[in-house]
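User: My instructor asked us to take a sequence, write out its structure as tokens, and then describe one feature of it. I'm not sure where to start. Here is the sequence I was given:
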Amino acid sequence: MNPRLILAALLLFAIHVPDVVPARAEQSPVAEAQREYNAGHYHRAVDTLSDAVVKSPNDASLHFLLGQCYYQLREFTRAVASFERSVQLVPGQSEYHDWLGKAYGRRAEQAMFLSAMGWARKTHKEFEVAVHLDPSNFEAQRDLIRFEMYAPGILSGGDDRALKHIEALEKLDALQGQLARGEFLNAKKRLAEADTVFAKILDSNTDRIGVCFEVADYYRDRQNTARMSEAIAAAERIDADDRRLKFYRGILLVMKGENPTEAKSLLKAYLATVPDNSDLPAHSSALEWLGKLCEAQKRFSEAAEEYRASLALDPHNRAVEDALKRVEKK
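Assistant: Let's start with the prediction itself. The structure tokens for your sequence are:
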């Protein structure tokens, strides 16, 4: 074949390659929005999804992710609307109902008494539907149990209901059931029994890192630094790079009164690198512990700043309100 023709063919191919490669590299709106969501760029994800919904109004996955974005932005009225649309489009998806229940629950927290009752009933119904559709949706199982632990009987709550669902969960997954039982016992101030349950979980050598962190939360609240340290070490053995470890290591140092510089660095790094997401330790909590660190060092004005920042994210935290009043008097 004529060498000039071969060269011309190669040049023609090279000219057209750039037109092909970017098309393959393009992300779908859901994938692009999910990437932004995972990075904590919720407003950007909302923009992407809002445009996509106009083009594909019957795509339930778009409405669902949009609802999650609004939820993280604490725009719960919009979150409800998006989740309701996703449920309307795909009524058999357990996860959709669970998140709709969460959003209803946050609306209940914001509402006046009579309206809150209505939102609470909707919350319970959605959690029940989520569990019915998929009993292996353990997040929905735990949401339902938590609702029944704290809600009065008039709203379908109560200990008997919660314990019934805990027993059912234990049959499906013993470890998840034990966590739910330990949480129930702790909420009911049956602390000796709760200690026994959480000690059993910690000693189980689980390979589920989320379980380790939940156990660490329990021992943090019980001011048991030795066992909290064991739970964190267990999590490190499972995944030493898990981004939540900065949060828990920082808190443990504050509790033990050790290495305040490292404690501050860990908590600041967590705030800077991990998005504020309902599935992760809250930024408001990290800020609260920074306030406790400053307060312990008698840096009261700095402590007040951290407590105010925490309250800006979680305005109803009475413990932080009391801490702020305390340091403001110093």
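For the description part of your assignment, you could build on this observation: Residues 3-25 form the longest helix (23 residues). Try explaining in your own words what that tells you about the chain.
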